[in-house]
Write a structure and sequence with these properties.
By secondary structure, the protein is mainly beta. It has 3 helices and 21 strands. The radius of gyration is 18 Å and the shape is globular.
């Protein structure tokens, strides 16, 4: 059975006052930075979001399962849905750094310059294992798939009046460059596995193009439409919505339709 997921609009200081269709909502005057698609118990280990940025996000890091106070860390990945000219992602450090370097740079703001900033455009896909220090730039719309947790350690926040977590962040941060094999470029006409990670698998489905290695997507699936024409268990799921189902056989794509699908990796017994 298909389940359309509830939508939660999250205000952020770096968000936008007006969102593009179909995410615009009359009467909501907040700066909306994130749209959450709240999962049910079926896919509770995953969370899908859409992010909208008008300013840079904080320089931040997320713990792994082993270092998280809740026992659940935050691996995540992003698909760039839209990018203004010059939009960038800061991911990992330009070169290996020491904890002392990072602490000093976080104190004076130069940590921004220690990151490696990548120009991005629509269709770029990047995986961020937990422990990756990162910052999202302005002018971006991203689809995010992540472990379902909200633990973020901010190292630097451009003077915004929000709590920082330097000690906790340094304890879990990878102080190295981000592996280049964590990047790929999505072909809209192809179905492909985008990420086969230790915590979840993400694939892009394109109508009329079978998915190789479909056996990697076992168990319940999170479905995020990228173009109209996605049906889950016979129910239309438009862009701006998300759904969950029990397997690939429940998903039907009309001509031109595309979607992201994600499945949790079952922990070893």
């Amino acid at each position: 059975m298909s389940v359309r997921l509830p939508v939660r609009r999250v205000g952020k200081p770096w968000g936008r006052e007006r969102l593009p269709a179909p995410f615009d909502e009359a009467g909501d005057t907040r700066r909306i930075g994130e749209i959450w698609f709240e999962p049910t118990e079926l896919t509770d280990r995953l969370l899908a979001k859409i992010l909208f940025t008008s300013e840079r996000l904080s320089v931040q890091v997320h713990p792994a399962d082993e270092t998280s106070p809740t026992g659940r860390g935050k691996d995540e990945c992003w698909l760039v849905l839209d990018a203004e000219p010059g939009a960038m992602l800061g991911i990992g450090f330009a070169e290996p750094v020491s904890p002392e370097q990072v602490a000093q740079a976080a104190a004076d703001g130069s940590i921004v310059d220690l990151l490696r900033w990548y120009p991005v455009e629509q269709g770029d896909f990047v995986s961020l294992p937990s422990g990756t220090v990162h910052a999202i730039g302005a002018g971006l719309t991203l689809a995010e798939i992540q472990q379902h947790t909200d633990i973020t350690y901010r190292l630097y926040d451009y003077g915004r009046p929000r709590e920082l977590h330097l000690e906790q962040g340094l304890a879990v941060a990878r102080l190295t460059p981000h592996p280049r094999d964590c990047w790929s470029r999505l072909d809209p006409a192809c179905s492909a596995i985008l990420l086969a990670g230790p915590k979840f698998v993400v694939a892009h489905l394109s109508a009329g193009n079978p998915l190789d290695d479909a056996a990697q997507l076992t168990g319940p699936l999170l479905v995020l439409p990228l173009e109209p024409g996605v049906a889950v268990c016979g129910e239309d799921v438009p862009t701006g919505a998300a759904a969950e189902c029990r397997g690939l056989a429940d998903i039907m794509l009309s001509a031109g339709a595309r979607c992201l699908v994600a499945a949790s990796v079952t922990p070893p017994a």
